[in-house]
């Protein structure tokens, strides 16, 4: 058996994806890999004819394909991207405008945390044709991608997978040297046939990208995985806006003073959220649901449309291709921050309804203090996603953080919408 595998792999070629000739082969492998267990509900992904849609918005990206035999059949692929993110923080003393006589008294006031950045690579979309598995093709794809990461100066590589995907976990932790690192929660909420009522106790202000950038850099730049090029994210055409919730009567959009002034004297409680439009990237579809479940879902929508004032939690049409919005950059402060975040999620729901989305999704640390304010359905969500990480080289300076792979989790993480 091993001899047969070795002979087969001798004709294996791993090369860069060629859009002009590889699309049909890649789509064929994607379709075969998406086939779920018989009789079970499965989630299918339609990349809308653009196999690199999930990485093309990153600063640097690459897609590789595995080609086998004289027929040059595509039997696998993997995608990867590189960016610079926060991996920790250190304390910096700001001595500006502090006189010698006051330095000792004001030392604590002038020490602030600043981010420590690292160049991070991300592996996603690893696929191997079901008829060519257990031949080492996945391993070859990952190793070749890691070579590209190292050539471009990445210090760490990470990947995300379902907690119960034993084949993927075994490959990365058993053969590729990755370690289990973080277990964030994926929270998914359906988009109902009715609009969600947003609390009248809050005012929602849409921030300009420059104001949003200022707010994020000043308040969240030390959050783990925060992208240093946050301005590129916020100014991307897929970013539908950043929204701030404050107590009603304190601020208004027409009299917004700017993020700097806002943060200098913030209200007792506030929250912020940004929205990313995945409708333009790919569609999802739930398959394998029984006729009874389909009928029940359809009935809830019919009743909800007929009687919208009842605010019924109707099940959206998930059994045909649907798009979604992704919520990122969630944060806030104050005793009512979670309630304000809930209002922002309601506002995001209504935006998604207007765009014809099926669901609204986000991903947060399981330790996130504001997690309680994020509406979601447990049946659609994942309580523990799994992120695994690897240090690509030992010749990097440990700096003030040390080996990031060994660091304890923080309260929050920043999930980049470009990598969903």
UniProtKB/TrEMBL annotation:
Q: Which UniProt keywords apply?
A: Acyltransferase, Transferase
InterPro entries (UniProt xref) = Acyl_CoA_acyltransferase, GNAT_dom, Plant_NAT
Where does the N-acetyltransferase domain lie? Answer: 12-197
Q: Does the keyword Endoplasmic reticulum apply?
A: no
A GO molecular-function term, please?
A: acyltransferase activity, transferring groups other than amino-acyl groups
Q: From which residue to which does any coiled coil extend? A: none
Q: Name one Pfam family in it.
A: Acetyltransf_1
| Family designation | Belongs to the acetyltransferase family.
Protein name per its UniProtKB record: Putative transcription regulator GNAT family
Q: What is the lineage of its organism?
A: Eukaryota, Viridiplantae, Streptophyta, Embryophyta, Tracheophyta
């Amino acid at each position: 058996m091993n001899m047969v595998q070795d002979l087969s792999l001798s004709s294996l070629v791993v090369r860069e994806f060629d859009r002009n000739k590889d699309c049909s082969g890649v789509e064929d492998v994607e379709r075969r890999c998406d086939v779920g267990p018989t009789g079970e509900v499965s989630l299918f992904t339609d990349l809308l004819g653009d196999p690199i849609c999930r990485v093309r918005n990153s600063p640097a990206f690459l897609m590789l394909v595995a080609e086998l035999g004289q027929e040059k059949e595509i039997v696998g692929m993997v995608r990867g991207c590189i960016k610079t993110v926060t991996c920790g923080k250190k304390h910096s003393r700001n001595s500006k405008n502090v006189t010698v006589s006051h330095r000792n008294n004001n030392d604590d006031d002038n020490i602030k945390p600043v981010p420590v950045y690292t160049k991070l690579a991300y592996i996603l979309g690893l696929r191997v044709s079901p008829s060519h598995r257990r031949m080492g093709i996945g391993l070859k794809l990952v190793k070749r991608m890691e070579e590209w990461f190292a050539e471009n100066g990445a210090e760490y590589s990470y990947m995300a997978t379902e907690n119960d995907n034993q084949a993927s976990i075994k490959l990365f932790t058993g053969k590729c040297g990755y370690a289990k690192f973080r277990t964030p929660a994926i929270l998914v909420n359906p988009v109902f046939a009715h609009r969600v009522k947003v609390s009248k106790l809050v005012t929602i202000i849409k921030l300009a990208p420059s104001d949003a950038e200022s707010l994020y850099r000043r308040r969240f730049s030390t959050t783990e995985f925060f992208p240093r090029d946050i301005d590129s994210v916020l100014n991307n055409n897929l970013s539908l806006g950043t929204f701030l919730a404050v107590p009603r009567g304190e601020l208004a959009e027409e009299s917004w003073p700017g993020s700097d002034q806002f943060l200098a004297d913030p209200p007792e409680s506030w929250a912020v959220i940004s929205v990313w439009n995945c409708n333009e990237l790919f569609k999802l579809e739930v398959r394998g649901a029984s006729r009874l479940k389909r009928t029940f879902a359809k009935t809830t929508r019919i009743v909800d449309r007929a009687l919208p004032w009842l605010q019924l939690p109707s099940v959206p049409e998930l059994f045909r291709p649907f798009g979604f919005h992704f919520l990122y950059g969630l944060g806030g402060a104050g005793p009512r921050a979670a309630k304000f975040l809930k209002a922002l999620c309601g506002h995001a729901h209504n935006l998604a309804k207007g765009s014809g989305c099926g669901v609204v999704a986000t991903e947060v640390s399981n330790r996130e203090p504001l997690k309680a304010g994020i509406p979601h359905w447990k049946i659609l969500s994942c309580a523990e996603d799994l992120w695994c990480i690897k240090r690509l080289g030992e010749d990097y300076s440990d700096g003030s953080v040390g080996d990031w792979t060994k660091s304890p989790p923080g309260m929050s993480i920043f999930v980049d919408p470009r990598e969903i």
